[in-house]
Amino acid sequence: MMPPETANSQHGSLCGQPDHQIHRRKFLTGLSAAGAVSVASWAGLFSVPAFAQSVKKRAKHCILLWLCGAPSQFETWDPKPGRISGGPFRAIPTKLPGVQFGELMPRMAGMADQIAVVRSMKTNQSEHLQGIDLLNRGAAPRPPFVRPTLGAVLAQQLGQLDSPIPNFILLDPCPEGNEFKEFKAGNWAGWLGAQYGPVRVGGDYKIEDVQRLADLTADDQEARNALRRFFNRKFENERKSAAAASQNAVFERVKGLMSCAHLFDLEKLPASDREKYGPGAFGLHALQARHLVENGAPFVMVANGMPWDSHVFHNEIYQMLVPELDRVIFHLLNDLRERGLLDDTLVVMMGEFGRTPWMNQARGRDHYPNAWSLALAGCGIRRGVVVGETDADGVDVVGTAFNEKNLFATLFSALGLDPYAEYDLPELPSFHRVEDRAEPIRAVLA
User: Fold this and answer.
1) DSSP string, 197-216
2) Helices 404-414 and 128-137, axial angle in degrees (round to 10)
3) Contacts from 124-128 at CB under 8 Å and sequence distance 24+?
4) Domain 61-206+265-444 is classified in which CATH homologous superfamily?
5) 355 or 55, which is more confident?
6) How many Cβ atoms from other residues are within 10 Å of residue 243's Cβ?
7) For an engineered disulfide with 304, which of 84, 170, 249, 282 has Cβ 3.0 to 4.6 Å away?
8) What's the rounded mean pLDDT across residues 405-422?
9) For residues 276 and 286, what is the distance between their CA atoms, to the nearest angstrom?
10) How far apart are CA 350 and CA 336, in angstroms?
11) Over the stretch 352-398, which tens digit does the pLDDT of each residue have?
12) Is it the case that residue 131 has pLDDT exceeding 70?
């Protein structure tokens, strides 16, 4: 496929289509020539339909399907047929010669040429809370500093100036219980500030209590907001408080959320869409993520409680979970492709580690960070590759192993962001998006 610049040079910068009525390079050159131009002076361009639609189509997004509890690699991406570690399920061929997936994933086997699988992840946290923290932040803790999560960094880097949609959305059906709740209660945005933390929506598939009170006019509400902004800004300036600045930004985000609450309401989507994703919360939240990305959301994290934590009756549980995952990924990727969004949307499918090659006495698989798998698709990802391998029983990685730093370098690279950029943290130690200049997993990058 020709790069956009080449295609435009062959057909002219204007082809009559709305996408091409404003040339990106000319626009950026004009901004550069103009010198220091305030956002307010050119933000009005977003009211021009051709420009707004062009920017929206080029925007990059990320959907993180967070398989909380840690899915087993043996029944999904790295089966071991005929081995004790493989369990009772068969392996089936995929569209890639010589590559097999677990038999519970026939749809993904049929589109293996559209995704990338990494079979050689190796990390060092074997408990949920620590593993979730590690795989969401990309580095081990360095107290007292709190590193921002992937969602917070991408919210800052990919957020759209004109969009009222939150930059970081967490769709999670499990507001109570499990280790993930402890993580959710923590500081997601770290030193970036609360404005880059997530807006969390539960299992109701809509946002409640965001409408203006019936007895409050729009003018009265705006007057109250103006008064609040005045006093908050005064406090922020007098105290020179970063915390106050973050809180002020959060108030502004809530105002935007009121205007886009309808985008979270799944009842407004066709019944056929809801039916194909299935009745489960995970599938419906994945559909919600697709819809939000269609409407400009930069980062959406879809979490599904802790169902993958199969310490007991592993095989019985996976007979339900894996087919649902197979169906959801299949429809999500196809829908994004049909809407012209897949090339600009990075889809990440992973949990906090893998499961043991052996069964415990309760017929379950326990936590196992020594050798596990994940899958990637979409923006910046090479299609139809399987990277890395594990030994015959999946006990250890054969050859090069990849950790959380390699993964984050990969994700940032796929989205066109410098993995090694240094955070602007005056009077604090040096921190980078990816520490130690860890290499990305180059074989999965397009």
Assistant:
1) SPEEE-TTSS--S-SPPTTS
2) 40
3) 124/369, 124/403, 125/352, 125/353, 125/369, 126/353, 126/367, 126/368, 126/369, 127/179, 127/367, 128/68, 128/69, 128/70, 128/178, 128/179, 128/180, 128/306, 128/309, 128/352, 128/367
4) Alkaline Phosphatase, subunit A (3.40.720.10)
5) 355
6) 11
7) 282
8) 98
9) 11
10) 19
11) 999 999 999 999 999 999 999 999 999 999 999 999 999 999 999 99
12) yes
| Residue 336 token pair | 């994004």
Ordered by start, the domain boundaries in the chain are: 20-58, 61-206+265-444, 210-261
What does the pLDDT look like over 174-225, one tens digit per residue?
755 556 666 777 799 999 988 899 988 876 776 665 666 677 777 776 777 6
- Which residue intervals of 17-110 are DSSP H helices? 24-34, 39-42, 49-58, 106-110
- What tokens were used for 436? 């130690």
Q: What is the pLDDT of residue 261?
A: 81
Which residue, chain included where needed, has tokens 């299609």?
A: 383
- 422 DSSP 8-state letter: B
First to last CA, the chain: 12
Note the pLDDT of residue 202.
Answer: 75
The answer for 33, left when phi > 0, alpha when psi is -120 to 50, beta otherwise, is alpha
The residue among 61, 67, 65 whose CA lies nearest residue 166 is 61
3-state helix, strand, coil in the chain (%, to 5): 45, 15, 40
Q: Which amino acid is at 189?
A: A
User: Among residues of the chain, what percentage have pLDDT more than 90?
Assistant: 63
Residue 390 in 3-state DSSP? strand
Our CA dihedral for 161, 163, 168, 172, rounded to 10 degrees, sits at 180
User: Reading across the β-sheet that carries 168-171, which strands appear in turn?
Assistant: 199-201, 168-171, 299-303, 61-66, 345-350, 372-378, 116-121, 385-387
Other CB atoms within 10 A of residue 373 CB: 25
Burial of 161 (0-12, 13-18, 19+ CB in 10 A): exposed
Sole residue written with tokens 């002020």: 248
pLDDT of residue 211: 62
pLDDT in tens, 264-296: 889 899 999 999 999 999 999 999 999 999 999
Nearest to 377 by CA among 420, 348, 406: 348
Q: Which two tokens stand for residue 214?
A: 């019936």
Beta carbons of 52 and 18 less than 8 angstroms apart:
no
Average pLDDT over the chain reads 84
Q: Give the type of residue at 274.
A: R
